[in-house]
Amino acid sequence: MSGNGPVLKKSGCGEEKNITPCWRLLGYATLLVVNLIAPPVLASSFTGLGETSHGGFAIEASALSADWSKVTDFDLTGWTFSETTTDHALLVESPIVPAEIGLNMLVWLAVLLTSMPMLLVILEAIMAMGFRHKRRSVVAPGKKFPRTVVLIPAHNEEDVISRCLASLSVDLPPNCRLLCVAHNCTDATAEVARNLGAEVVEVQDAGHGGKPDALKAGLRWLDANPPEVVVIVDADCVVSEGAVRILATRAWELNRPVMGAYFFASADAEKGLSTLSSLAVLLKNYVRPLGLHALGLPCLLNGSGSAYPFRVIRNAPHGKGAIAEDYQLAIDLLERGYPTTFVPEARVDGQLPKRDDTALRQRRRWEHGHLFLTFRTAPRLLLKGLMRLDKNHLGLALEVAVPPLAFLGMMWVIAVSLSLALYAFNGHGGPLGFLAGTAAMFAAAVLMSWMRFAGIKSTLAALASVPGYLMWKLPMYREFFTHRETRWMKTARDNFSGAQHGLRTPFPG
Is 97-509 a domain of CATH 3.90.550.10? Predict the structure, then answer.
């Protein structure tokens, strides 16, 4: 080879016939699909892999199939498709028409797009239920605690911020101070925070950016006396004892962002986690991140209860251009080489809105922002992960690609409808059976995880509201395709009862 030509590294798969290992594996997979899943239908569409015989279809040997038979001891060259039955023959009763081929491929595509998110959730739930916490010292003896600032973005939070500051003050670590950013406030938020011992910076701006703008203003304020770690807590949350210590220490040790366990209780404190909305958030904010943690993969940021090295967060984009700003921030930091680690021991509690219209607006912002990232950003992350063979990009891409539960349920109904049409058209029931099996495993994994972490009573009480919950969500998803939410809007606050902080802790110990 000349000195100017490309140099190919040898691999176990070889490079003969200009077929790279990646494309060779793709060829193997294609032949496997052709011969095992739908031979009569797909074989007719792959003219390059075989020749059409007078009696039907035949797939003759190629370089790829020969290699496959060497690896697996499974001879593909003898498989033929004809109207006469032989040792390796499959009976074809009628000619294959293009419409049948197209319907088959469309149905299997819908099945795969629906099943992959469900299978990922199943894996995460299984790993979460099998996870065993290893107790460890928060700060090693003799080790100095990092200089930390708890940054609290607040907009008209005078009714709830006192509860948040009180929970933080119970166990405030050394070298730690509280900073409240009173962002476009028209009430007594700043005065309440000062009276409770927090530093306060009051910011007035156009008010279009919401929480991300408040965070950026607070970080600019810290430039005069920068900390080593910044912990972000929303003003309407209650922080468990020791959570700030754990978050700050882990962020400093790992030199990357970390996310605590962020729970939402029902607006009715007596119900606790006994509502479907609370359990859906439990699955999204705790069970699935815990499963990713057990797999050694990064998680998404879910709002309150996160911590960052100051130099990492100072110039981050802060979710620019996305209303799901926390998810976008996790993606932006991953792109810069800082994947987010889940810290299940650090618990932060919030509360769902009481009013239905307020709750709907909150969910609309959350889920429209999530769906936008699912369709736009997840494929790009997945491609980048495949090109780099990077588990962090692959893991976060798959996590972003899992839509909200109700939307996933709608996808499943559509896939089942297409599978029924395929079964009625040509009697092919493979996709229908696959969807039924996946749905059964998915339902079992989700229910078992809810029972494990929220209790059997709460799970059974929430299941009664499934039909109403789905009907409540349908208009929201229709609006995503007609007039999607594109603006960041703050959720109106209810009076914080604080009772949800006494709920059964899903993470024992």
Answer: yes
Q: What is the DSSP letter of 91?
A: E
pTM score, whole prediction: 0.72
Residue with tokens 């929480």: 211
Phi/psi for 457 (5° steps) reads: -60, -45
Say what the pLDDT of residue 358 is. 56
DSSP strand pairing (80-82 vs 199-203)? unpaired
| C-beta neighbour count of 437 within 10 angstroms | 11
Neighbouring residues of 154: CB distance < 8 A, sequence distance ≥ 6: 161, 180, 181, 182, 183, 185, 189, 193, 214, 235
- Spatial neighbors of 2 by CB under 8 A, at least 6 apart, are none
Query: 304-348: per-residue pLDDT in tens?
Result: 999 999 999 998 887 565 567 889 899 999 999 999 999 999 999
Residue 161's pLDDT band, with cuts at 50, 70 and 90, is very high
Domain boundaries, the chain: 16-95, 97-509
Distance of CA 106 to the CA centre of its chain: 25
Phi, psi of 351 (to 5 degrees): -140, 135
Can you tell me the distance from the alpha carbon of 69 to that of 52, in angstroms, rounded to the nearest whole number?
22
User: For residue 321, what are the CA distances in angstroms to 214, 243, 317, 326, 334?
Assistant: 15, 30, 9, 11, 17
